[in-house]
């Protein structure tokens, strides 16, 4: 095995920048998603506490809100798992890029597969995240209709 020169290493470093930036971007998405999960959990706990003193009519709406919040929490968890998988595969891709250069292997299929899995996980995460946002609007609608009932 021949030692890798700096001139041969520079293109590998340049190629690894893309997945590195992807990891950074996914990290910011994960921050947003974990914040949404925390807020959903907090809202679930607050709603559950409110149900203890609620009227029978309000309890039905409250239980419906809790079901929506539970679904949202599960969706956000899935979104976080898929985003984390994306970052994991980006990190593995970077390692494989360096190993293929260092060991002078030609494995374009593995590199392409890792990149595709990385992006597919990211796409899946974003689709699930959008679904959570739609569910949060549904939860808001439930809450607003419950408040309308109390005002009448």
Topology overview:
Elements: H1 6-51, H2 56-102, H3 108-151
Helix pairs in contact: 1-2, 2-3
Word description of this protein:
The protein is an all-alpha fold. It has one domain. It is 90% helix and 0% strand. The longest helix has 47 residues, at 56-102. The protein is rod-shaped. The protein starts with 5 loop residues before the first helix and ends with a helix.
Keywords:
0% strand; mainly alpha; 152 residues
The arrangement of helices and strands along the chain is HHH
The biggest beta sheet reads:
none
State the shape. rod-shaped
Strand content: under 5%
The percent of residues in helical segments reads over 70%
Secondary structure tally, helices: 3
The overall pLDDT average reads: 90
Low-confidence stretches: none
Distance between the termini: 81 Å
SS-based class: mainly alpha
Integer tally of domains? 1
Number of E-type strands: 0
Q: What is Rg? A: 23 Å
Question: What does this entry show, briefly?
Answer:
This protein is an all-alpha fold.
């Amino acid at each position: 095995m021949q030692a890798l020169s700096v001139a041969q290493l520079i293109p590998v470093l340049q190629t690894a920048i893309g997945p590195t930036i992807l990891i950074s971007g996914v990290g910011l998405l994960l921050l947003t998603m974990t914040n949404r999960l925390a807020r959903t959990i907090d809202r679930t706990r607050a709603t559950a506490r409110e149900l203890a003193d609620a009227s029978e009519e309000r309890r039905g709406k409250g239980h419906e809100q809790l079901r929506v919040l539970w679904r949202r929490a599960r969706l956000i968890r899935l979104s976080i798992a898929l985003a984390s998988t994306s970052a994991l595969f980006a990190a593995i891709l970077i390692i494989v890029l360096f190993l293929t250069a260092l060991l002078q292997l030609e494995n374009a299929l593995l590199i392409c597969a890792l990149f595709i899995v990385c992006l597919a996980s990211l796409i899946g995460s974003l689709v699930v995240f959008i679904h959570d946002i739609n569910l949060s609007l549904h939860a808001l609608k439930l809450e607003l209709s419950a408040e309308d009932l109390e005002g009448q």
